[in-house]
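Dear colleague,

Following up on Tuesday's group meeting, I ran the structure prediction for the two-component complex that the binding team flagged. I've pasted the input sequences exactly as they went in, so you can double-check that nothing got truncated or mislabelled along the way. The structure tokens for the whole assembly follow below. Feel free to forward this to whoever is handling the docking comparison.

Inputs:
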Amino acid sequence: MANKTQDQNDLTDKSVGSKVLALIPLGIALNILLGTAIHTLKMPIYMDACGTILVTLLAGWRAGVVVGVASFLLGGMLTNPVLPWFAGTQAAIALYTHFVASRGGLRTYPRIILSGIGLGVVAGVASAPVIVYLFGGITGSGPSLIVAFMLASGKSILNSVLLSGLAAEPLDKTLQLLLAVWLLRGMPRTLLQKFDSRLLATNGLTNAAYR
Amino acid sequence: MPRIDEMRYPHPIARLVATGLGIAGVLLTNNLPLLAVGVFFGVMPIMLVAGTIRPFLRFVLAVVLPIAIALLFVWGWLVGAPPGVPIGSAPIEGMAYAGVISLRLILLGGIGQLCLMTVRPGDLPATLRSIGIKGDALVIALASYALVPELRLRMEQVITARHARGLLPNRNVITRIKHFPFMLRPLFGWVLRSALQRTETWRQRGLRFDTMGNVLHVSQKHSAMVIALSLLWVSAVLFTKYV
């Protein structure tokens, strides 16, 4: 229709895809909710990128980046005002997840564990500059103890943060990837097929033979 | 004190510019007294006037205070010097470094809260539109804002349902941790189904965001005031840094 507004036009399939558009806010809410729940339960993991990983697998890296960045911006408003500074890490997580998933990196559990270790390295490297400059190396979480130990042994602040990130992040990110794949495998195949995701198909998540 | 629906706020563009200048100032300076002035004579009085002092204090006590204590312990006592200085050679400077980082975190968090939390929910669509967030991005922003409480409620329903069926013996923290992955599956299933249902609803009804919330409770006086304050802050930072 000629007199449709720009806002109405953007909601049709040609821009983002209305399924993806509906999925993104839910991914954002899932990220915030899981992150907050884990933080409240004082568990020694973060679990704040699960929504990012799931949406990346369902709708590709662009949607994943939007979910990751927006959830940390909104999380800054609702839970912790310093979260937005880690939005870049979430973008890196979405990009890496798309990269490994497009190469079948989530097809079997050993591959998921390897991909999770890689994801931890990416997340550790991406968040290190923020932790060094903004937090002085100490964020108050578990890995800060490793940083303190390394600083006391004479290592530089950047090396300490990088090494502690590389020691702690792979476990957290492997758990998040495992949880994401476990959740997807628990969903009805017909439901997942409606999202028509190439990444899910590549990793056998919409194919009954792999389930 | 005016009623909340009578209060007026800075224009979104002024809000964004002031936030950008405020953050730039905080990131540029390492001056401990100036950062303290920014907290006690800048952010806190504005928080008091805007009525957002409670979430700010909660942030300071719950988030920054534990980090500040850890920073003081590490840089003031364990390392005993700021970064780049031999270990144990300057404990006072190490403590000052911990103070700078803590105050910087408080200021960054406070400025972020002032920028975001002082927007009235009713003004949110118009605020987002006036800073250039339109179409798909506006749908995502507004839906995310609304869906967090909805998803939280859904999670509580999942817990209650499992409890009612005898799958959760009690609601304590250990039980919740043990059953956490199993609570996620129904929640994620709901997320996927809800996304598909919303898609269908949007297709059938269409959404009009062009006429939504065009009324903004802004005032030029407040806009000019926040810009002036942020410029004053950046000037003070540049003055102490270079003069």
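The radius of gyration of chain B is 23 Å.

Cheers,
M.
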